[in-house]
């Protein structure tokens, strides 16, 4: 984060904060408005009480007119009731609109993750930025999460200052009677100016000292994040399935305890923040508090001396003291708030750096023709591809035509480019060289969403959501229950399905519904993923090799079964196990990113000098059981 090392200026801080404010306002206008209107209301209404009490006190020590006092008390009570009502109404509005604000702010960042080009997710710098933004937010609340509160404080302090000044100005203007000897010094404009300047200076010093103390948190946000990361990882060691077994087996908790409870660590008693709290942070805070007390003392002395000299009565003493304290509080929070906005600026800038990552993939607008006959001709023409930041080709000069309604197998060793080939077909990446055509037109020219609609893929590393089974299969909240059940049946999930008492409404896993959610095995999850692909009913159906440690025979069975249910769709199967795919109409053999052989199983296996023959024989030992 180079920019954070540059000098912080008010212009820079306000540019970043204003942009963040607009961004949040555009997403959640009611949330922002309810917050701001509430704080302005809360800033101004106390003055009504201060003003009315001063009038009551003046009347009490002055004329003591009972009628007048009664009237003032009634007005004060009525005002208090209206204020309380307004406050309650605004609080309710604010709380309703601000419910889940943490998630709302998170949403602005996660929205980008969905909208960004898939290729951007591969970039390690993007991953690092995103993780830092999240840690800053979850750790110290830094970044977008603080902005609305800062603007609230800003408005609140400005209105507090204005309201307070309106009730305070007369303190400096009302003159001490000319016969009051030395007290008349308070009538000298230079003395008045000097007192105002002194008050202002003291008012600014206290929050600046506090800001200095706070800046240690911002400066050391990385250590704070590291502390949080250690805590959230080691704290759950014994709990998460994947970790819990090894922890018990190798007593890893002992090693981890050393990291988790280290006194020298970020939050330890000898750690960084404890060190600062005992040192400069503590000193700055104490000095800030001391200066505030001195300020209040000064105000009392000045106001009381003027009252003693006969400039005004007792009622105004309470009004002045209360409103000056408010003005000073307003100034303090204004200054400390601006300081906090400066501290938060580098965190916002990092968020914008992330949100501004451009989408460079060309977005075409051609409509993909809806064809009942599923006649979509897709062709790879001399396609080569390098992953961003990689020097070597993951695919080289691939030419391929998909025969409509046929079965194509893509085989090859791990790392030979099979998955990359599918990712290009689905336009998760664009080719580095060459082009992919749909019905003779470069796929980049089509509307991306419509183009994606012609593919159903069960990716190698597919994931299901911890939501209802039916929602998982359909990918929507409202789903066609019969169709879901039919797809699950075709995918071979019936045995497990009949044991689910909530049927398609059963929650998968425990994350959403801890009590009733059900766990499914890797193989069962795969069947659900296949049902999901079938439900989409796209013209192309693609099955990437199952990652779960299925034995070769089980894998072959899945593929053959799938062949039956793929019907008239164009199907593509990917595997590094040749036997799984030998029933296909055509087999393409990938090797080091290139298609080195293409043909039927019979043709390929008869070419004894070819790679297919070599791989077939190397793997033959696994398939004996089937023949
Ligand atoms: P297969 O599916 O045949 O196992 P892949 O298509 O996954 O092979 O990988 C082809 C090549 O591209 C491999 O050398 C792999 O290391 C590389 N590769 C895959 N994914 C990425 C990525 N995201 N970034 C950089 N290189 C990658």
Folded structure, characterized:
- The structure is a single chain.
- This protein has 627 residues and is of the alpha/beta class.
- The chain folds into 3 domains: 10-355, ABC transporter type 1, transmembrane domain (ABC transporter transmembrane region fold, Up-down Bundle); 371-454 and 540-560 and 570-627, Rossmann fold; 463-537, 3-Layer(aba) Sandwich (Rossmann fold).
- 59% of the residues lie in helices and 9% in strands.
- Strand 7, helix 21 and strand 8 (570-575) form a beta-alpha-beta unit.
- Helix 7 (147-173) packs antiparallel against helix 14.
- The longest helix has 42 residues, at 314-355.
- The model has no long low-confidence stretch (mean pLDDT 87).
- Bound molecules: adenosine-5'-diphosphate (ADP).
- Adenosine-5'-diphosphate binds at residues 122, 387, 390, 394, 412, 414-420.
- The site of adenosine-5'-diphosphate has 12 residues, from helix 15.
The low-confidence runs, each spanning 5 or more residues with pLDDT under 50, are none
For the largest sheet, list the strands in their spatial order: 6-7-8-3-9-10
Overall radius of gyration? 36 Å
Give the CA-based shape.
elongated
CATH architecture call of the largest domain:
Up-down Bundle
Please tell me the overall pLDDT.
87
Quick summary:
By secondary structure, the protein is α/β, with parallel strands linked by helices.
């Amino acid at each position: 984060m180079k920019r954070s090392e540059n000098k912080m200026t008010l212009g820079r801080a306000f540019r970043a904060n204003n942009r963040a404010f607009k961004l949040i306002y555009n997403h959640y206008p009611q949330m922002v408005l309810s917050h701001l209107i509430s704080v302005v209301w809360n800033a101004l209404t106390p003055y009504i009480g201060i003003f009315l009490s001063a009038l009551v006190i003046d009347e009490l020590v002055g004329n003591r007119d009972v009628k007048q006092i009664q009237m003032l008390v009634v007005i004060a009570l009525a005002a208090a009731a209206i204020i309380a009502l307004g406050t309650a109404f605004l609080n309710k509005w604010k709380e309703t609109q601000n419910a889940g604000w943490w998630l709302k702010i998170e949403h602005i960042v996660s929205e980008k993750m969905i909208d960004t080009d898939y290729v951007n997710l591969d970039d390690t710098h993007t991953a690092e930025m995103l993780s830092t933004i999240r840690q800053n937010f979850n750790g110290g609340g830094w970044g977008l999460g603080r902005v609305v509160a800062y603007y609230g404080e800003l408005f609140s302090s400005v209105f507090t200052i204005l309201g307070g000044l309106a009730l305070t100005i007369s303190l400096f203007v009302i003159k001490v009677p000319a016969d009051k000897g030395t007290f008349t010094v308070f009538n000298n404009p230079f003395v008045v100016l000097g007192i105002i300047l002194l008050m202002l200076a003291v008012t600014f010093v206290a929050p600046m000292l506090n800001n200095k103390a706070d800046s240690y948190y911002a400066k050391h946000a990385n250590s704070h994040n590291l502390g949080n990361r250690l805590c959230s990882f080691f704290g759950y060691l014994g709990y998460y399935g994947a970790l819990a077994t090894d922890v018990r087996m190798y007593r890893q908790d002992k090693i981890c305890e050393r990291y988790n409870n280290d006194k020298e660590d970020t939050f330890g008693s000898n750690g960084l923040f404890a060190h600062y709290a005992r040192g400069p942070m503590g000193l700055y805070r104490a000095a800030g508090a001391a200066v505030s007390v001195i300020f209040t003392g000064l105000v009392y002395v000045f106001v009381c001396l003027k009252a003693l000299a006969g400039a005004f009565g007792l009622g105004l003493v309470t009004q002045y003291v209360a409103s000056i304290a408010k003005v000073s509080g307003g100034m303090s929070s204004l200054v400390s708030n601006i300081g906090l906005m400066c501290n938060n600026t580098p965190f916002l800038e990092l968020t914008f750096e992330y949100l501004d990552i451009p989408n460079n993939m060309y977005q075409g607008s051609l409509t993909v023709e809806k064809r009942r006959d599923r006649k979509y001709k897709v062709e790879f023409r001399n396609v080569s591809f390098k992953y961003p930041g990689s020097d070597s080709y993951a695919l080289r000069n691939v030419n391929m035509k998909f025969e409509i309604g046929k079965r194509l197998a893509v085989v090859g060793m791990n790392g030979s480019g099979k998955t990359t080939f599918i990712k290009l077909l689905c336009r998760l990446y664009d080719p580095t060289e060459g082009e992919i055509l749909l019905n003779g037109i470069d796929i980049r020219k089509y509307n991306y969403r419509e183009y994606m609609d012609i593919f159903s893929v069960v990716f190698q590393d597919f994931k299901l959501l911890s939501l209802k089974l039916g929602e998982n299969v359909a990918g929507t909240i409202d789903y066609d229950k019969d169709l879901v059940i039919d797809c699950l049946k075709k995918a071979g999930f019936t045995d497990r399905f009949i044991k689910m008492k909530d049927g398609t409404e059963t929650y998968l896993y425990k994350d959403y519904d801890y009590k009733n959610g059900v766990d499914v095995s890797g193989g069962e999850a795969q069947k659900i993923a296949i049902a999901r692909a079938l439900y989409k009913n796209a013209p192309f159906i693609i099955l990437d090799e199952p990652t779960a440690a299925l034995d070769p025979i089980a894998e072959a069975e899945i593929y053959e079964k799938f062949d039956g249910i793929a019907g008239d769709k164009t199907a593509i199967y990917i595997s590094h196990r040749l036997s799984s795919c030998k029933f296909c109409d055509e087999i393409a053999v990938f090797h080091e990113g290139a298609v080195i052989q293409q043909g039927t199983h019979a043709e390929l296996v008869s070419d004894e000098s070819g790679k297919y023959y070599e791989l077939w024989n190397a793997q033959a030992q696994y398939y004996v059981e089937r023949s």
